[in-house]
Every structure is written in structure tokens, then in C-alpha cells.
Amino acid sequence: MQIVWLKRDLRLHDNRALARAAQHGDVLPLYVVEPELWRQPDHAGRHWAFVSESLSELRADLARAGQPLVVRTGDVIDVFEQLHADHTLKALWSHEETGNDWTFQRDKRVAAWCRDKGIVWHELQNHGVQRRLRTRDGWAKSWDQFMAEPITKAPAMRPLQIDPGTLPSARDLGLAPDPCDFRQPGGRQAGTDLLNTFLTERGETNRTAMSSPLAGAHACSRISPHLAWGTLSVREAAQATWARQRELKAQGCNTKWRASLRSYTGRLHWHCHFIQKLEDEPRIEFENLHRGYDGIRPSAPDQERLTPWARGETGLPFVDACMRSLRATGWLNFRMRAMVMATASYHLWLDWRAPGLELARLFTDYEPGIHWSQTQMQSGTTGINTIRIYNPVKQGHDQDPTGAFVRRWVPELAAIPDAHLQEPWTAENARDVLGKAYPNPIIDHLSAAKQARQRIWAVRGTDAFRAQANSIQAKHGSRKSGNPNRGRRPTAKKQAQLSLPLD
DNA sequence: AGTGCAGTTGACTTT
DNA sequence: TAAAGTCAACTGCAC
Questions:
Q1: Domain limit, last residue, from A126, A152, A179
Q2: Do residue A22 and residue A74 come from a single domain?
Q3: Residue ranges in chain A modelled with pLDDT below 50
Q4: A306-326 as b/e, with b when 16 or more CB fall inside 10 Å?
């Protein structure tokens, strides 16, 4: 009996673990619901809801291929023990997982158990991330090669005599209620629909619209949760994008489309690029990548700052709108993710760990490698990236010029005129609203930014700091972007006015 | 028509 | 994927 252990690869198509296992005999496709994983502080009800929907659909897809998904709940070793006793396992198949520390330790236990029982565990590369990578040189080329390999088809499977098991509810798992009215639905069908509509309809304005929190909701692919939980493979997304690019080229160019898709393929690279950092250095889930920043922020979070930030009650309208929108939709565009994290780390001077966990629980597409790499980058603790302190008022003006986004999510500001919406404390009628329906800002954002900049540069200026930064660059830096200290100039800013979106 | 000048723009630097 | 500051070139306008 070959076990295919599905984790963050909840698909039948382009699932090599499944395809390879099927060449060796009867296959038992297994998902183990691990209650302890779902109790980890980076996991939340919305993740389980997405996974649960995806598992139901996968179960039906697998049933059509011959053997429905088998679901067991409990510690994975106990589950394997039982299955081994009942069915005599020959081999275990799965994809390599670059997860959080909990799944890393669990995988070590699984490896030890397999060794002990003489069961071979075949772990296959899941996307562009390479295990035991020695150097970043040549990484992008390997990525291209991996993504160009043929997509594997769903194997035919012989039905087994085995109880398929049931999916527990969020309540069964003891998950706290996690309301998310506009969460993206799970399941592969939703994923392929998104990919198709993005590549044929929604993607044309991607490059210019992605930075707007409202227009971006429509013009971004939105496949991120599907990549995170594996209902789509990165290879499928890459090949579909390449095919569409060839089609557009053959049709004679539509420059807008082609610019958007060029930029999009770059993002698919970045997806794996960031996960690779956690793969190479798992400690970045917990520790500053550059140790020069150790101790500059209080390690225990100031709840008087963390809580209003997380709830969207800081009194900074654009930041609050972003956090409330995120809570309700499970998604935020890339730029706004960077802004809310930077606000926590710089303006509120919170250590990144607690706000990082808040965001992990709020992103339906939580992908540990991307998340912790980005969290550190946006908090300035990598040592190799430019410090980016966002001005939440300026971002509000730039990315939400009509104020539609803020008005949608912060209705308490209805009485504030458009001209003062991003900084309501400057409005004539401020006293009618602030400190009543809507809070006064919990910090003065200009002086807070200034203070943060001074504190950061006090650390950054030293020789010892630069020496460590150089070795980090050698290990983790993108070869394409080169040395970030030799800053390339940003090109002139385009302020595209965007069509009205839905959120 | 050339000059002086305030205000603007854009490239580049610094934090 | 930032923002603020600096500086020089440029622009429009009055005289």
C-alpha cells in the first residue's frame, strides 16, 4: 500500500506525489486533520474553512478517479501506526513542505517513524523551492526549468476497502469563531475559475491597478489561497500564464495586457523566492534575520497599541480601513499588507512577531515562507532591504483618491468632508466625530515615523551591521536585483485612475 | 528682447 | 514595495 499524504497540495491534477505513487501499486490518498496544528497561533478558523471546502471537493475528485480521499483526525504518527497495522504500508509519498516550525518538527517525527519502520518516505519538490540549497546562484534558471516540466495527469486508482472518515467541524477542532463574510471559497474549481478569468478578463489592468485596495481586488489574480493550500500548483499557474502570453503575442500586442502578464510572471517567481528564505533559515519565523536589530523593540507587545491596530481602530483612517477590510475578506493587496505591517513595526514600534501572528490568522492565503519573509522585510529587520516607512495619509491620498475605500470600511467618518477624510483631525467638524464615533489617532504619525527612522538608523549605520548585512545578502539576496544598497531609482510614478471595483 | 525671480519639476541623496 | 530633502534646470511672468 502506498500512502499519499496530502498537506498543502490539495489537488489531484499536477500532483506528482499522487502520480508517482500510483505507479507503484494501490494508493491510499490521505489527509490528516491535526488538532494540534490547528491550535497553533498562526492558524485560524478561516484557514480551516478554506481547507475544509477544498477537501470536500478533492474527495469528490478523487472518488471520480477511483478512490475517495481518506480523512483521519489525530496525531499523524498515531494515524500512520493504525494504517500500517491494518494495511501494511510500503511507502509514504508527499510533497516537501516549507511550513512553520510546528510542521517542521512534525515532519522530523514522521521521518524518524518511517526510518524506524523501514518505510521509505518519498518527498517531492512542490514548486520552485529547493531543499538543501547550497547557493542562490542559478536559482531562477532552476525555477524556469521546474515550471516548464509537463503537468502530471490524475492517475486512475483502484478502490480500497477502507472507511473514508469524516471531516471535523471548526467547533470539533476547538477553533475560535472567525467571522469572515467575504472570504474566498476553497476548492480547485474556484481556483481554476480565478486563474482563467484573470488571464482572459481581469488581468489587463493588473500592473497599474494592483496597488489600489479596491481596484486591486478585481485586477489581482486572487489565486493566492489556492497556491497556499495547493488547490492549484504554481506550475499550472505559470504555464497558463505563459500560454496566454504567447497567445497575446500572436494576436499582435496589446501592450497593457503584456505589461501586466510580464509583471505577473515575476510575481510567481517571487512567490517561491520568499518561501526559499524560510526553507533555508527556519529561525526567521521567530528571530530577526539581522541580529543587529535584536532588542530594539519591546519583546512583549503593548496591547494598547496592538489591539486597536488589529481591530482597525487606530484613528488613522486608511490603516483602519485596510485592517477592517482584511478581517472581513481575508485578503489585502500587496502594498497595503506592507503598509499595515510597517505601521505596526515603525509608527507603533511593535516587535513584528505579535502583529505578524495577527496577520497570519487574517490572511486566508497564509503561506509561512512568504509571510515571515515579508513580515521581516516590511519591519526592516532583514538588514538587506531598504527601510520603507509608509505615510498612511499619503498612501490614502495616492491609493484611495476618491475616498471610496475608507468610506466603505470606516462609515463613522461619514460627516467628515472628502478633503479631510485621510486626516480627519484637520476637519472643522473633527470634534463632532473624533473621540466619539471614531477614535483620535493613537499616535502622531509624522513624529512617530521620524522617531522610528532615527532608531533604525542608529543601528544601521555601524560597520558591524554592514558586515552581517553582506553575508545575509550572499545567502538570501535575489541575484537579479543585486545589491540593494546601490539603490535603483524608482521610475516616475503613474497614478492610473481605475475603474470601479467590487470588494 | 533680455533679465531677474518665484515657483515648479525631476534627478539624485539621505534617512 | 517609502518618503523627505537637496539641488540644479526649467518655466512663466513682469518689467
A1: A126
A2: yes
A3: 482-503
A4: bebbbebbbbbbbbbbbbbbb
